[in-house]
Amino acid sequence: MLGPMSFYLGKNQNLWKCVNIMDINAKYPKDTFDAVHRFISSTSGSSAIKNSRSKYQAAIVLKNQCLKHLALGEVLQILYIIINTKKWFVPHSSGWQPLSFNIIVVDATTGAGGKA
């Protein structure tokens, strides 16, 4: 035992919620997955996820820009579900990058869509 620990969180941030991040049977409302789908289908959202260097960094992007009401552990769990069950994007076999998207990304400036 190390003794008392101090935790520093940003304003309105949740401390890690203990969840099994690899639980593909976790239940979240459809609205949660719809919000994630809208975010990663947008030009800015897909770009932010593509530019992430790890699943952890991608989860932080999702938490800060899309799932602000959830703890980071829950966001990691959702990320695991959308990769392994929904297959919305696929990390490279050697690591996180390069990332392949299996959804249509909508370009808000032209209205055109296409696979990313």
From TrEMBL:
Q: Which InterPro entries match?
A: OST-HTH-assoc_dom
Domain (OST-HTH associated) spans 48-103
| Pfam families listed in its UniProt record | OHA
* Protein name as catalogued: Os07g0637200 protein
What's the source species for this entry? Oryza sativa subsp. japonica (Rice)
